[in-house]
Amino acid sequence: MDVARETSAEMYRRMFRSRSFELAAIEKLKTGEIPGALHTSVGQEASIVGSCMALRDDDYMVGNHRSHGHPIGKGARTDRLFAELMGKATGINSGMGGSMHLSDFSVGSLGETSIVGSGLPVAAGAALGSKLQGNDRVTLCFFGDGASNEGTFHESLNLAAVWVLPVVFVCENNGYGELSAASVMVSVPDVSMRAAGYGIPGATVDGQDVIAVYEAVGEAVARARRGEGPSLVETKTYRFHDHAFGLPSPVYRDQAEVDEWRKRDPVTLFRARLLADGVLDETDVTQIEDNVAAEIAAAVAFAESSPYPSLDAAFEHVYTNPIPIRH
Questions:
Q1: In the predicted model, is pLDDT for residue 313 greater than 90?
Q2: CB count in 10 Å sphere of residue 133
Q3: What pLDDT, on the 0 to 100 scale, is given for residue 25?
Q4: Percent over 90 (pLDDT), the chain
Q5: Which residues contact 72 (CB under 8 A, 6 or more apart)?
Q6: Residue 64's closest CA among 110, 114, 108, 126?
Q7: What is the DSSP string of 3-44?
Q8: What structural domains and CATH numbers belong to the chain?
Q9: I need a surface site. Which of 2, 145, 154, 185 has the fewest CB within 10 A?
């Protein structure tokens, strides 16, 4: 598939932006300025961006616990996202969502949660809403190989199939559910094989190849928009880092395996492909990288200079009247 130069450039921009954002976040976690654990998607950028670029701006997207890259792939601003990770009042969710509970309705990002598999029914619900409203919005749901073993996976795919909902389920199979290898936890070699149980299309693609992901998800999105129902797309990818920074992690995978996957770095691969095919030249690529570097530096500075929420803010967006706070 020949992808337009402008689209290819935007793909690389978003992949490099996601990578740069994650690396900056890791540094802030090390200094204690980002609290808690940090689940990064370094190594999974092709799966994220290829999927999100197949959507329209007004389509919906649902993420999971490893979801800094997902709103970035959908086009979100990085300054407010970084402020959210640092718990600042200027964050996209006023500093109350943090790393694992981001949402950005301005780009159709309906949210991510720390509960494995919880995004699947949310996506089915969003797709049902679109169908009832009679519009042609499509919902895309990211989840991992571990979530494919959850009850919500069966319930959501079954309902989506029965009700012919406009939703695309994207399983980012990075080989591990936390510390457990998918090879011993999933009963089939490809998660996409499970689509047959619901009578819907299933496809497995190379998750390190952004164009392959874009094509497969694009086909599923087009099918959903035509009113033909859901699809399941599995992207075989890999997270370069451990399950999370900030959490103890025993040795659960061979370094040789990690090294082998790092040879297929999706950002590096796509950069080389753009140059080899003459889609962009070295000047174009360098300009994209320099602009993104400046953007992320500005996002970090914005977050650093932003205030923390006030104590009273703890009672905003709740269903009961606040109790008095003694300052």
A1: no
A2: 9
A3: 97
A4: 90
A5: 14, 17, 18, 21, 48, 78, 81
A6: 114
A7: --HHHHHHHHHHHHHHHHHHHHHHHHHHTTSS-S-B---TT-
A8: 5-306 (3.40.50.970)
A9: 2
Ordered alpha helix ranges (H), the chain: 5-30, 45-52, 69-73, 78-85, 119-133, 151-162, 182-185, 210-225, 255-262, 266-276, 282-305
Of 155, 136, 172, 164, which is closest to residue 44 (Cα–Cα)?
Answer: 172
Residues 147, 153, 155, CA angle at the centre, nearest 5°? 155
The sign of the CA dihedral 317, 59, 142, 23 is: negative
For the chain, give the percent of residues with pLDDT over 70.
98
Give me the helices (H) in 74-230, please: 78-85, 119-133, 151-162, 182-185, 210-225
**H/E element holding 139?**
strand 139-144
184 backbone φψ class: left, alpha, beta (φ>0; ψ -120 to 50): alpha
pTM: 0.95
Q: What is the pLDDT of residues 68-127, one digit of tens each?
A: 999 999 999 999 999 999 999 999 999 999 999 989 999 999 999 999 999 999 999 999
Q: Check residue 327 and give its pLDDT.
A: 61
Question: Backbone dihedral region of 220: left (phi > 0), alpha (psi from -120 to 50 degrees) or beta?
Answer: alpha
Element (H, E) at 202: strand 202-206
Per the rule left: phi > 0, alpha: psi between -120 and 50, beta: everything else, 175 is left
Alpha-carbon distance of 49 to 71, in angstroms, equals 10
Degrees, nearest 5: CA angle 60-79-248? 85
